[in-house]
């Protein structure tokens, strides 16, 4: 590199270093004045140095004042040394106070009607959806043979009665055995008539209960037997709902307890009822107990086979409830900080149930006790604390 280039580069470096010293060094202005440089030049090329020096002096003064103020606060002693915390009061929580289960509904009475005799259907007197009364004829079978048999039995009864009457009128001419035989024959003929009338009556298929007719699966002309279902009748004035509950409720539920049920088909609409029956044993496989509830259905809004969400209320078990943030852990287990007389005290707790908004615990706590929820890092056993609500009321500013 040429000499003149080296000279120019060195000059530039020297000027840059001088400028940096002038603008960054706090005492640059005083040094130039001591070197005899006129004040007009110093004030023009080193204003930042002067400002920096003034700022440093001002900061030092403020720091001294702040130190004095803090010393005074420390000498004031009182609450400024206490740890600032936020607290929440202990409330009472309840567990196992509500039971929810899913069950299936059934009519309070339901009958699959079958014939009492074998034959061919000659007449169907009902249709799906009809309301029928007990004893009402639903369908008829062919009955010609039974009509003839009843007529024959009727004739036999008349003949037996005439013979018996005749023997009674001529007792003196006949033996007592003949009279007795005529009476037996009359009674036998009457029994044959009753059997014939019964067989004829069984050709009519009748309703055993009051109810609503389901779909009729047979037609006129079908040959049916005593095992052929003719129709299903449901008495759905009340609905029975079977459901299963965990075994821990086995000593809590009882017949007559109120229940509320909501059908999946009618969301938001509650139906009231009571426990109709409680099973006598716990299912070993599922560890559940079977219950049966009876739901009023006088409005006929519910159907057999519906799915229900059933709920029950109980007194439940009561425990102290604390904020989830307040529970801490150490080598001995879980605990909370209780504030009493402006001091913090460690209280051991045993967690019963966790919920999103609170935790139920077993502990020596009562309603209204103050439990620390924030500022837990600096809390110590027996240490002085300030509750944030007190600080806000007094107008003090937190220093932590």
Mean pLDDT: 82
| Portion in beta strands | 35-45%
Compute the gyration radius: what is it?
51 Å
CATH topological fold name of the largest domain = Elongation Factor Tu (Ef-tu), domain 3
Q: Number of DSSP strands?
A: 22
Structurally, how many domains make up the residues? 4
Main sheet overview = 6 strands, mixed
CATH architecture of the largest domain: Beta Barrel
What would CATH call the homologous superfamily of the largest domain?
A: Efflux pump adaptor protein, beta barrel domain
Structural class by SSE content: alpha+beta
Write down the CATH class of the largest domain.
Mainly Beta
Compressed to H and E, one letter per element, the order equals HHHHEEEEEEHHEEEEEEEEEEEEEEEEH
What is the percent of helical residues?
25-40%
The number of helical elements comes to: 7
Which spans have pLDDT < 50 for at least 5 consecutive residues? 48-78, 390-400
Net shape: elongated
Distance from first to last alpha carbon = 63 Å
